């Protein structure tokens, strides 16, 4: 973690690119805080559109229309192919109407991808720092929102309450959980390559902070996603020799000082805020009960006397029935049309609504993204791409647990992965790479 990259005077362009990308990648928590907690701007999608427009404006480079940087071509082709197909369905196979919000989602997604192609590779070091600081600050705003919300009490799911009428009560805890995951993973990937002790301590406590926010969200999908990330780390990175190395390094004076400071900090925190630990343990008990409810709903196996039907899981079970009905009908080829059915299982909805071609594009895109993510977890090219790889592994759960295949909650992170994951970087290949730029055009 290089704090000098935050110097606006010497790193202005990379900072504004990074802030714009971070606003698109993880902007919803900050949108909800500004709009619903602080009451700034209209409590509607208009404010969201203004926020994302500002983000894209920050990303406009001085070399626009002159230079494009090479993304992951496989992911770009499959991603654009799926988006173009859904856009066709939006205009020509649409029985639900052409809402302004849907048009805006397509505009922002295509605009984001186009501007990312103009962002230089060297922005990666600044971008990972900005993503981390953005998520860390947003975690702080969440705490402020909860403390000032008269309707929130300990034991409830942590989220910013929406201010607009008829909105989902209690806010969106999945947005809260995602921000916690981003804070955890971005801090983790920078921790091993950060030399300063104070910065290491800050990153370590940021991981704990993000974990606490994740627990408070009670988002089952994010819990499972973190489990997948941890499993991938132990499978591809962890070695038994690391244990002896870690023990040997722990007795070095600098590392011992680091460990002592962490233990003192944890002891002080628990002695002063012991109720918070009990609160987190209580949330964990609630999570265990909900997992047992999901197992009972999905399989009929009752692992506890208190297990009951989980409404959200039941909706996905019924969605699988819709998929089977489509699979054995003529709709298997072309699908039922844009947003015709809501299955809450994106990978299945891509087939039900968009036919076999929609499924092939969407499933292939995620399959290759998984391959590139695993490859990156194995070799750890740089903090940004490692972060994107782990973050995608946590997102995989959502492909079968929630959302729609064209949600911007998917495609904004997907766009950043298309641009930066699985490509060759100048600092990793020291010899000149003539095809680093896709093309150069003159205006």
TrEMBL record:
Q: Which residue windows are transmembrane per the record?
A: 14-34, 46-65, 71-91, 103-120, 126-147, 197-216, 222-241, 253-270, 351-372, 384-402, 408-426
What keywords is this UniProt entry annotated with? Membrane, Transmembrane, Transmembrane helix
Q: Does the keyword Transmembrane apply?
A: yes
**In its UniProt entry, what is this protein called?**
O-antigen ligase family protein
Species of origin reads Dyadobacter pollutisoli
